[in-house]
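Researcher: Before we compare anything, I want clean individual predictions. No alignment, no superposition, just each chain on its own. First chain goes here; please echo the sequence and then give the structure tokens.
Model: Echoing the first chain and its structure:
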Amino acid sequence: MAGESENYDVEQEHLNNVFGARLRITALRAAKGPGVELLEYLAPRDGRPAPSDLRANDIAHWQTTLVTDRLDPLVGLARDHRIALVSPGAVDTTPLTAGFRAGALTRDPDGHGLRLVVK
């Protein structure tokens, strides 16, 4: 983790275009590559949850892709921490032109998609 903060006030409302926005922001950074900021809306709490039947080919689907050297440890961690596997596990994609050798699609407890890939 690179850091965390709680942001609110008029500037945050304008940035998010949400009146009364109060957010907890958690910043993640690996040894190399770009960082990721995760936003949790503390207020307002009237957002809609992701549909439980949301599929990867639905227009509303959104995912974050993380590149890793090995999938097996991450797939195991996902199973241990209530991260639902959408794919049956690590999927070999070498016969495809996907741009990576293997991948797994997961969904966190809030329904956010996370694609883990090995280049």
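Researcher: Okay. Second chain, same rules.
Model: Second chain and its structure:
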Amino acid sequence: MSADGPVAVFVYGTLMPGRLRWPLIELQATGHRAAAVPGRLFDTGQGWPAALFDDDTATTVPGVLVELRREWLADLLAELDLVEGVDTGHYERVLVTTTDGEAAWAWSTLQDTSGFTPIDAWTTFDER
């Protein structure tokens, strides 16, 4: 997938500041703030969350909008696609819009969520 589009990612789990995979983004971040995107959030039971983004839902996925350096965007998105399992068919990178109108890339699950536990926010620190 091309990196044309926003120069920001919306993260909601292990990629958030202070979490297990934040170091993958930290050096390319120019700023970050709390944000939310319409959708549903799940605990996969595997040490990371999964989200389904859907503008027709009354719920939101809380997370962080991370602004990135444009010159490294394509490389970083390619790396994050690998980390998020885009190549395995478990997730896909999608364009989302935060509830306050900012566009960003995010990773949406392609998995059957019937075995996942719906959650309001990713709060566990037992991350893998």
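Researcher: What stands out in the second chain?
Model: Helices lie at 23-26, 73-84. Additionally, The first strand starts at residue 8 and ends at 11.
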